[in-house]
Write a sequence for this structure.
């Protein structure tokens, strides 16, 4: 029964120019799976002169809720795009071209640049050090010298790893932070190209 607790919500339908086919975009939600977005081509229901194929082919299946723009360039060409940026982990997973029977499909997606390992400038290094200073009481719960370890990691060029560890320690320790500290972390997390999921959890701790 638990596996049945899933839902496919239809987001949009895009008819082909000859009205024989339709692109349908769905948001998929399931209690034990991450949200996803997928798109299919189907035979259009009101085309009575031929037998409808209820599921023609899959066009897209992305492991995240994504705003999908799909359009028919003509009856034999589809373009799939999105205004959203996808995590760099999708760069090798998403196709650029695909053929659905005799329909050519082109994909145009924006991929976020991969996270930076090293801070891009001295200002960012200083901001990460300041984030460590502001959260040091929380960090020291993991060991008296852990804050010094993180500072050394930043100075050695492992800025991303150090910053992710700071965020993880604060989140797991449920340590309250000031709104100013959250604003600092928000700025430097974005500068380093780190996943926004950290910010969602940190924001809940801001007081």
């Amino acid at each position: 029964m638990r596996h049945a607790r899933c839902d496919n919500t239809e987001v949009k339908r895009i008819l082909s120019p000859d009205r024989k086919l339709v692109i349908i975009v769905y948001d998929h939600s399931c209690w034990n799976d991450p949200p996803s977005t997928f798109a299919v081509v189907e035979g259009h229901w009101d085309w009575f002169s031929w037998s409808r194929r209820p599921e023609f082919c899959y066009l897209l299946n992305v492991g995240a809720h994504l705003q999908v723009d799909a359009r028919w360039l003509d009856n034999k060409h589809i373009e799939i795009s999105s205004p959203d940026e996808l995590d760099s982990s999708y760069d090798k997973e998403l196709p650029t071209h695909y053929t659905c029977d005799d329909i050519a499909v082109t994909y145009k997606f924006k991929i976020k640049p991969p996270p930076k390992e090293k801070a891009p400038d001295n200002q960012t290094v200083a901001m990460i050090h300041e984030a460590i200073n502001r959260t040091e009481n929380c960090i020291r719960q993991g060991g008296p010298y852990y804050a010094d370890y993180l500072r050394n990691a930043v100075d050695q060029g492992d800025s991303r790893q150090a910053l992710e560890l700071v965020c993880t320690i604060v989140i797991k320790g449920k340590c309250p932070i000031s709104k100013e500290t959250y604003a600092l972390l928000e700025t430097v997390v974005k500068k380093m190209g780190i996943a926004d999921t950290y910010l969602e959890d940190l924001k809940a701790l801001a007081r």
User: Anything to note?
Assistant: The chain has six helices and eight strands.
